[in-house]
Fold this protein.
Amino acid sequence: MRVSLDALQSLTWPARRLAAGGRSGTQRSTLRGRAPELSAYRAYRAGDDVRDLDWRLLARSDRAWVRLSEDRAIHPTWFVLDATASMAFPVATQAKWRTACALSEGLAFLAHKVGDPVGGCVVGGDARGGTVAPMSTRRDVVSAWRALLDGVVPGGTAPLAPAVAAAPAGGRLVIVSDLLGDAAACRDAANRWLVAGNDVIVLHLLSRAEWAPEGGRVVDPEDPGRERMLGPGAAPAYAAALAEWVREEEDWWVRRGAAFHRVVAEDDVVGAIRGVVGGRDPGDVGAR
């Protein structure tokens, strides 16, 4: 699955929080300075830089006011992409993995479009071309990420938490996973980002075949050879239990300041990306 980058040209991906000061960029910064965009005025205080005085206002009001403006900074984006066996579900389409790749590629494009550094790593699977794309602002960073993903065949049961713990500090951390592995350890590993007030975005991928098993036949996403039939009346209880688990995951992340987006693997990827960058949940799949 490929995402149409042309369809994303009109979108922007603003940081959910003020970017840490540093190299000049396009995201709103924690620093205040002499950037062109006026933010506010305040009364002059001893020690303020006289270059920040609004001399015209001083001449009109006979009071000294300092112009405050918002500096702009870069906001690095780091992806942790789950490529374990459950992401290859359903086996016939590999919808979860294909959607995960398209989501991360589209979001990487939007971050890179405004000059923010982009990088990431893949966890699990057979990665013939490597597992890490170093943080970069190079012109070819998005195509390099795409090439890395093209060389990955999802599989195995590698834990996600070590990759989350090793993510470069600061900026925006994007976790793309079905959370069917070491979800608790992954949450613990993300705590340093959350406590520091950084952006953490979780894209939780599930397939429609997991929400509504065809013919009542439930297949283990991590081991497609394992399956069982739901007995009469068991399907509603199964769906309710799955929905409750998703809600519990979402509640944990959101209560700690992360953004949590539920994504149906078979749905439109561009629509899901619009939901992510617009701060909206792409959809409550448990209610469908």
Q: What stands out?
A: The chain has two domains: 24-73, 76-287. The mean pLDDT is 82. Residues 24-73 form one domain. Residues 161 and 186 are 4 Å apart (CA to CA).
